[in-house]
Specification:
Elements: E1 3-6, E2 9-12, E3 17-23, E4 32-38, E5 45-50, E6 56-58, E7 66-71, E8 76-81, E9 90-97, E10 112-113, E11 117-122
Parallel strand pairs: 2-11
Antiparallel strand pairs: 1-3, 3-8, 4-5, 4-9, 5-6, 7-8, 9-10, 9-11
Amino acid sequence: MQLVESGGGSVQAGGSLRLSCVVSEYTYSRYCLGWFRQAPGKGREGIASIDSDGRTMYADSVKGRFTSSKDIANHTLYLQMNSLKPEDTAMYYCAADYLSPCWYGRPYEFNYWGQGTQVTVSS
C-alpha cells in the first residue's frame, strides 16, 4: 500500500489548508486511517482518525478546527484545517492499517505511512 500526501504550504495564522492523502490500496476504505504531525524536536503526535464507517475522532488540540473525511471513489483521505495557529506548524502524515478500535492515539500501531507534507503557520 502507498500513501501520498499533498496540500501543505505556508499560511498566516487564522488561515486554512486542506491536506489530501491518496491511498493506492483499493480496499482502503476498510482501514483505519489516521493523521499525524511532527514538529521539529518533538515526537509524532496523532491528531485524527477515521474508521471504516466514517466515524472520526480528534485530539483536543485540533478539535473544532480540523475535519477529516474520505472520498471512497477517489481513494482519498482529506484533512480540512481551519483557524490555523503557529503551533500547528509541523510535518503532517497520513497513515493506514487494520486497527480495532481505530484511534490516532497509538501511532506505532500504523504500518503504512505517507512521506509527509509540510505545514507552516506564521503569526
